Fold this protein.
Amino acid sequence: MKKVELIMKKTAAKKIAKTKKIRTKVLTVPVDINRRREWRFDLPLPALVEGQLPYGKKFKEEAKLENISSRGAYFCLDSGVVVGSKLNLIIDLPKELTEGKKVKLQIGGITIRLEKPDKKGKKQGVAVRFRKDFQFVVGPKK
């Protein structure tokens, strides 16, 4: 019985060693993996961001969305929001997509990630996950 256990332990040790070698080889190969569930579009869209700061003061700030998807967006703010902040975005859609009409997308969301402010100023990267409710506001054609 002891010989069988010893053989099983040696076999298991060899398998672990092989697994480690394989993992090491896989990790050394540079691979660009996108773990996002949906496509993000790198569109510099102007937006107005409204919300409330942690100490209760309301704010409105103009921002430029760096990217957007069906589930969220990323942009920079000066306001000092925190993770969990509820924000409302009013996004100007490009006239090429709206037959020349002024259309704005109003959508709310919650801050899910913050990045450190850049060295030049105090702008902070903000990632927002959208809520499901949204509204299009159509203005006059120009």
In short: Strands lie at 45-52, 58-65, 67-68, 72-77, 86-92, 101-114, 124-141. The longest helix spans residues 2-28. The longest strand covers residues 124-141.
